[in-house]
Amino acid sequence: MVDLDFTKNEQGLIPAVAQDYQTGEILMLAYINQESWARTLETGRATYWSRSRRSLWQKGETSGHVQVVRDILVDCDLDAVVFKVEQVGGVACHTGQRTCFYRRVDGSQLEDCTV
What is the CATH number of the domain that holds 20? Predict the structure, then answer.
């Protein structure tokens, strides 16, 4: 297993960006720890650490909108990853949007930018 550097913050977490493997669209940002990293590599499905629930969370375990990992990129410091995923069901955000990044800043306001 590739050894990532989980020591840079006290919670032992590193950011994981989920990106559509075909379009390059950024779907979401979450965090992983050593256990979720190992589970992702073992199962081929994106598994994260939920900071609010303080537990492992396999994307789609309740919604069915799983992320099948097609490729993984690791940054130069071994403390951030990009999961290139197939987003099953087409929805990555818990709000029902395709991506968690569906709003843009317009002056001092947020504007919906979904198509």
Answer: 3.10.20.810
